[in-house]
Amino acid sequence: MQNAGNNKVLVVDDDKFMVRVISDCLQKEGYLVSGAYDFNKAMEQIYHTPPDIILLDVVLPKMNGYDICRLLRNDTRTSHLPIIMLTSKGQVEDKVAGLDAGADDYITKPFDNLELIARVKTHLRRAKQEKSFNPLTGLPGNILIEEEIKRRVSEGKKKFAVLYIDLDNFKAYNDVYGFLKGDEVIKFVAHIIEKNVKTLGGHGDFIGHIGGDDYIAITTPNKLDDICKAIINQFDSTISLFYSTDDRRRGYIITRDRSNQEIKYPFMSLSIAVVSNESRYVENHWQVAEIAAEMKKFAKSRAGSVYVKDRRVR
What we know:
Blueprint: E1 8-12, H1 16-27, E2 32-36, H2 39-48, E3 53-57, H3 65-73, E4 83-87, H4 92-100, E5 105-108, H5 113-131, H6 142-154, E6 161-168, H7 170-177, H8 179-200, E7 206-211, E8 214-219, H9 221-238, H10 245-250, E9 252-256, E10 262-266, E11 269-276, H11 285-300, E12 306-309
Parallel strand pairs: 1-2, 1-3, 3-4, 4-5, 11-12
Antiparallel strand pairs: 6-8, 6-11, 7-8, 9-10
Helix pairs in contact: 7-8, 8-9
């Protein structure tokens, strides 16, 4: 039995023998398979025990597979689930109808077991990757960030530099200008980081979005200074455009605390904490995060946009 990561597969087909055949095939690969023979049972399972992927027959009692697929795609609770349509029909128009209904793939019965397994694996892998990307910026999220740092650390002798990039005074901006404007800033910073890492970095450099106003970039020690300076210069020269004319004239924004006392906040700036294995041995990804937290605290204690590097030797 291969490791399928305990992924749950729901087979929706009114042919109980077909459900058994598919279940036997996928269970041997380590998948957790359950079956449903009609619309009501399928919906009950989907909403009470959400599967990771659905194999959906076209011909079903009460509601056909196309309509079920449309229903699932129009529900935010299930719109993300991979759906593979199953049918004994092989005409092109039937395949097109399935894809138009929102299916991710289409497989015709009778099918080869190896083909079925390969398609299930492909769509589960794609779904995992999609969940691993930040929906606002499209950059790799925490799962892929952690995997990348682990990989860099495991390579041992290869030198790397991890840039933890954080926005200062972002919450105050969000409070005054609202979440939509805040999202524009988030995407703007992501664009600056991506542009400069790609322009000034090297082959294999990595950019990720931890979440909120926190980002990460991984490059080599010889590239980090140019990248950090370029990101800060471009950010500082442009960020004022996200403020109103009055705020730009003042050079700060005004908010009020719970006691209705006026508080002045400077414009947003960037704090970049750099962790590298250039001068010290890094044991694991947890150590990278711990060092970064120390350096970020130090960076935030300084006014304006700055980058600080961990220069300790151990």
